[in-house]
Amino acid sequence: MFDVLIKLKFFFKEHKWQYMLSFLTLAISNIFAVFIPFIIGRFIDAIVTGTMDADLLLVYAVQFASLIFITYGLDLIWGYGLFSGAYKLQRQMRSTLMRHFLRMRAPYFEKFRTGDLLARGTQDIRALADTAGYGMLVLMSATGFTATLIVMMGVTVNWFLTFATVLPLLPMAYVIKVKGAQVDEAYEISQKAFSSVNDDVLEMIDGMRVICAYVKEDDFIEKFQSQTTQLLKKNNRVSELSAIFAPTVKLFAGLSTMIALSYGAILVSQGVLSVGDIIAFQMYLGMMIWPIISVSELILILRQGSASMRRVEDIIAATDGLSFTGNMPAHAVGDFQFDNFNFSYTASETVSLNHIDLALPKGKTLGIVGKTGSGKTTLIRQLLNQFPTGQGTFTMGGYAYSDYQDASLRELIGYVPQDHTLFSRSVRENIAFGKNDASDQDILRSIRLSSFEEDLNNMEHGLDTMVGEKGVAISGGQKQRISIARALIKNPEILILDDSLSAVDAKTEQTIIRNIQEERKDKTTIISTHRLSGVKAVDEIIVMDKGAIIERGSHDELIERQGWYYDQFKKQEIKDFSEEANGEKVSTKEGALKNNKALKEGEDR
Asked: Do 481 and 515 touch, CB atoms closer than 8 A?
């Protein structure tokens, strides 16, 4: 149960002066607070014995007021110290998680769903913050304050009465311990259910268009209601187990009060205690009720904190399985070379790259084509260090690719993936993301290269147009071209387009590729695509199938060989010609209708 405090020791040590001051002021405040019943007891005795006069009344009044103001000031100090510490822990833990997420690659995010990561980064860390703030307050009250009260009760009133009153509280500790373990288990189950609901809500929001298109709204509503019902049951289970704590504490506290009144009355009748003593003792006992009741809250907070700490530690301890030990800076791009290179994904027994032999000289443009699942993206991922290094030789500039510093390699690369990720910001901000000090001139240049000028002119707010979450407010082709502009503004040494032109028409595609080749004559470019017209003018084309290179050469050379590339190119050429012809027919037909309408209007006139 207390393991969460041990694991948070690093934080308490880092902010030791803040917590030491908080604990010191809390302890002093508790000491001053327990003197209030003592003064009241003496005040009552003075009234009962008839010794009360104006001077004595003034003394008691000044003492009482002084204690009230002193404890008020001390409470402000420890309250700020403890609860500001809780917020600092949230910030520190979330920053740690974010740094961890940003350093992880694809294999890590295959282990955890997004909703689960969000739940652990929000609700679980909030539970840890409660432990560092309110939990520490309750811990001090349940231990230090209770101990101070017991000592004060024994010293100023009677030790036998104190022991008799505290005795019923011992069995309470056992009940709390047993039920606390059950709360721990139930809370962890409820947190897992919350993570699952989070995951499905994110998927529903992302896939809302598809859900509506297939008229599946009712199905998802029913599924969501079922999930939230299960989550409610699991949370209710935590509440049921937690509910026993307060009544248990009150039961044993009631027994203590009964003993105090009964035994105390006997001692008063025997002359052992005064009326003021028994009143002060009852006030001490009343002050002890909250610390005792708070024991149940402390157990709950620590149990929940322990469960949350395990969940947070799980995602921090998990890695992507990638180890980049290279320490050689990559200042410039060299020639790439693959020799007998093989690669398989960890979760698959299929060979994804099979005996790859490939040379890509610096400053050249390589086209990678092949049917879906042929290994195009897998080959590109080797350049991005997104997965473990395969078997065989992979070099750049004559040195093993793994010898280079990972961060310096990524500085050289501009990457446009298949799934275009745009941020819920303006067009300007999305494009400038690729270059920290990008000017409007840089942005407009990259827009021209990505053939996005006409679209931008049609946008009401131009560069300040908001694209919506994940680019929901713009078309697929516009998203692709903004992503390309974002990569081009970086002016990278290596530009990788991974099927990044699928949503634009053939004419726009040709314009973009021509712009890239003109601007990047001395830089390395890799274009992976399904549309072969996009790689006609590159220096070399490789055709992949089942992870292997089955054809290579220039466009003309591959056409002459009449293999897969030839067959596929002819099919696409016929399709493009047919679509173009149909477009012209529609255009001609519309023109004819307009002319006939104009002639008819002329005849009517």
From this structure: no
Sequence-distant (≥ 6) Cβ neighbours of residue 69 within 8 angstroms: none
Structure tokens at 192: 């897992």
Nearest alpha-carbon partner for 311 in 39, 532, 93, 504: 93
* DSSP 8-state symbol, 168: G
* Tokens at 177, concatenated: 């311990």
Report whether 320 contacts 386 (CB < 8 A).
no
Please tell me the predicted confidence (pLDDT) of residue 540. Answer: 92
Calculate the alpha carbon distances from 339 to 122, 360, 422, 526 in Å. Answer: 47, 12, 36, 18
CA distance 449 to 491: 11
State how far the Cα of 363 lies from the Cα of 157, in Å rounded to an integer.
91
* Domains in the chain with CATH codes: 3-317 (1.20.1560.10), 336-563 (3.40.50.300)
Render 393-428 in DSSP notation, one character per residue.
Answer: EEEETTEEGGGB-HHHHHHTEEEE-SS----SSBHH
Task: Give dist(CA 101, CA 118) in Å, integer.
Answer: 11
pLDDT at 4 > cutoff 60: yes
| Residue 295 amino acid letter | V
Confidence of residue 366 (pLDDT cuts 50, 70, 90): very high
Residue 341: what are its φ and ψ, rounded to 5°?
Answer: -90, 135
- Specify whether the CB–CB gap between 451 and 505 falls below 8 A: no
| Beta carbons of 485 and 422 less than 8 angstroms apart | no
- Nearest in space to 25 (alpha carbons), one of 15, 13, 33: 33
The whole model's pTM is what?
A: 0.66
Q: What are phi and psi of 515, to 5 degrees?
A: -60, -45
- Whether 293 shows a pLDDT value over 70: the answer reads no
Q: Is the pLDDT of residue 602 over 50?
A: no
Q: Give the Cβ contact number of residue 6 at 10 Å.
A: 10
Q: Could you tell me if 330 and 404 are in contact, meaning their C-beta atoms sit under 8 angstroms apart?
A: yes
User: Within the chain, what is the greatest distance between any pair of CA atoms?
Assistant: 128
CA 292-293-294 angle, 5° bins: 90
Contact 154, 304 (CB under 8 A): no
Are 550 and 371 in contact, with CB atoms under 8 Å apart? Answer: no
- Contact between residue 525 and residue 336 where contact means Cβ atoms under 8 Å apart: no
Residue 202 pLDDT greater than 80, yes or no: no
- The whole-number average pLDDT for the span 276-293 is 78
The residue behind tokens 């290994």 is: 375
Q: How confident is the model at residue 580 (pLDDT cuts 50, 70, 90)?
A: low
Contact 320, 104 (CB under 8 A): yes
User: What residues does 527 pair with on adjacent strands?
Assistant: 367, 497
Asked if 35 and 28 count as a contact pair (C-beta separation under 8 A), the reply is no
Give the mean pLDDT of 17-24: 89
